[in-house]
Amino acid sequence: MIRVLLAEDQALLRGALAALLGMESDIEVVAAAADGESAWRELQRLKPDVLLTDIEMPGLTGLELAQRIQRHALPVQVVVITTFARAGFLRRALDAGVRGYLLKDAPAEQLAEALRQVHRGGRAIDPQLALEAWGEADPLSDRERQALRLAGEGLSAGEIAQRLNLSHGTVRNYLSEAIGKLGVGNRIEAYRLARQKGWL
Fold first, then answer.
1. How would you write the pLDDT of the chain (200 residues) with one tens digit per residue?
2. d(Cα 97, Cα 99) in Å, to the nearest integer?
3. Strand partners of residue 51
4. Which of 28, 93, 102, 142 has CA atoms 20 to 30 A from the CA of 55?
5. Residues 6+ apart with CB under 8 A from 162
């Protein structure tokens, strides 16, 4: 039996995925979390075989969750299911040890098969995305990415500093580094370009 923890912030989709996987005789959804932090707590409590996670979630994204799993060397395989058909996301996911990367518009039977494949120690990655992923490298550091994501949400440098427990000057440095690396004029353009490339 493959024990799966599901992390997806949209309630309707979370329920649909749980119901879909519940129809498989060899897959059991042990819990369904609505955000990254609660998924992290459930991971430690339930120790599932596979985490099936979205990327965009409040608090802790699916990729940040995968990075945390990798840092703590938890024995759980990660499969990402997302609407983001962007090579930058896949590349970051692979760097974080993700074993599966599927798009939400993939056929339903592909999902169960991907979970089985990953559980057996293999990979399940959208082939077209896999080809694109090795094109352009992500130039942003984790801190630059965090600062830029919050700037894109409309927070000021002072508010970002408070949120990330950094000084105002450090946040301004991260933002100007990101702007420089992306070759754009301001933080909003940097946010848009980084998001378009799948680097946020």
1. 999 999 999 999 999 999 999 999 999 999 999 999 999 999 999 999 999 999 989 889 999 999 999 999 999 999 999 887 777 788 889 889 999 999 888 888 889 999 999 999 999 988 767 766 666 677 899 899 999 999 999 999 999 999 999 999 999 999 999 999 888 889 999 998 898 887 87
2. 6
3. 5, 78
4. 28
5. none
